[in-house]
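Much of our argument rests on the idea that a fold can be written as discrete symbols. In the encoding step, the backbone of a single protein was reduced to a row of integers, each denoting a local shape. We regard such an encoding as a compact summary of how the chain folds. The record that follows shows the chain in one-letter code together with its fold in token form:
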Amino acid sequence: MYKSIIAFFLLLLFTTSTFAKENSSNADIDLTRMSSTMVYSMVYQMVTDPQKYIGKRIKMKGAFSSYFDEEANQRFFGCVIKDALACCSQGLAFELAKPRKFPSEYPSEGTSITIIGTFEFEKVEDGIGFPIIKDAKMFR
């Protein structure tokens, strides 16, 4: 009987620790655990000084946004957050690790999402570019 109880608790412990590992963010910077003011400030820093963050795993929560650039003939996706007063917004573009069909496999504009991926700086021309979260996973 004691062996059964010990086996049960060992199984429960193993299952719980495996579940926790699968659900942990493994992010270098987890914006979901910060206040709205800190998140806004951190995203502002990422946008204005992206070199410090290249290669870091970022996790953030915000509103889903998309934009079609007719000149580039490309759709961009973003995760947008507002500051504490909800008057200003900052966001980061993201590219999913597993592409989806737009619009059927994406949330509606403004839907709350969480993304986690690697921060990169995508150069467009002459050193000009934009920060983007690559190889991202998106959760609602």
Observations:
- The radius of gyration is 19 Å.
- DSSP finds two helices and six strands in the chain.
- Confidence is low (pLDDT under 50) at residues 1-24.
